[in-house]
Amino acid sequence: MLKSSLKAATGAAFIGLFAMTGLASQAQAAANCIDGKRQPPYTLGWANIYSVPTWMKQTEGTIADEVEKLKAAGMVDELVITDAQGDANVQIQQIQSMIDADVDAILLIAGSSTAPARVLEDACSKGIAIINFDSLVDTDQVTAKVNTDSNKWGDTAAKWLIEKLGGEGKILVLNGPAGISVSDDRRAGSNEALAANPGIEILAETNTAYNVAPAQEAVTSLLFAHPEIDGILSLGGALSAGAILAMDKQGRDMVPMTGENARQFLELWKEKGLSSWATMQPNWLGAFAAYTAVKALQGEDIPAFIEVPLPIIDDSNIDEYLARAGDFPADGYIYSPWDEALFDDIIAGSM
């Protein structure tokens, strides 16, 4: 009741204020699930599959930061957060609770690609904006899906390493857990480039959790079995950090290596004088989801799929990232800068 009264009393003023910051006032429904009836300030729901991993904590932090900006613009009054603790069925129940509470938008990293279909269809039918990012659902009953391209990740990493080795060399391949879509997609993305360069010999590859300790153990075993390697195609930042520690412990010379924006990897990269390349799943995908939800509720035309370009870290800009290392957890990720102008550019580029 209080929320409805607040919306009725202040909605028009808030729309005008937000229009000045770059979002037009709502005139009609221009995106899927949007019925044009909801008015600001909006309540956003963040349906988190789990909150323990540092990556997820950092992602939630960007959502909270963006919501504060949206509150200042009069567009959001509340952020509701749930934690399914890794249980996809619990996440579905929590989404249903958000629907019952009549939130205006749901931000979602899905615990299952198929299980939430029915509850998301229900939310969509009620005019609730649904922005699904990172781990995507199979249904199209959402407002927008937001993600980077994991296949492109693997392809770009492989091409960088192949070029660095001049098209010839013996390499190790480090993957995340088998059966995890992002891990499998990154590896699949590297296949074409590797097949096109027969001078690159894969000595061995391994699948481990995205943690330094198991990666270090796995690479240690591979190094004992293969005393001569020329490069490492690593498709995860913790995997790369583990590889560096394993090589250093054996007194091995460092080799060109790919990776991810994990802070420990980036710091070891600089400390050991590596030549490396990395990209990332930016934590600000969460902030972007919140911003996109409000744009959709305001009647903006939002594409059904928004591809977020892969930010690149290489020898030319590693120092820029490390200069900001103190702003990020020691076991976290140094992600690229973001603002709402960047978000507008990404949406426009996906139209």
Can you walk through the features of this model?
The protein is an alpha/beta fold. The protein contains 12 helices and 12 strands. The protein has 2 domains: 2-148 and 283-308, 3-Layer(aba) Sandwich (Rossmann fold), CATH 3.40.50; 150-279, Response regulator (Rossmann fold). Helix content is 44%, strand content 17%. The strands form 3 sheets. Strands 2-1-3-4-5-11 form a 6-stranded parallel β-sheet, sandwiched between helices. A 3-stranded parallel β-sheet has the order 7-6-8, sandwiched between helices. Helix 6 (181-195) links the parallel strand 6 (169-175) and strand 7. It is elongated and about 65 Å long. The relative contact order is 0.14. Belongs to the bacterial solute-binding protein 2 family. It is found in: Cell envelope. Pfam families: Peripla_BP_4 (PF13407). InterPro entries: Peripla_BP_I, SBP_2_dom.
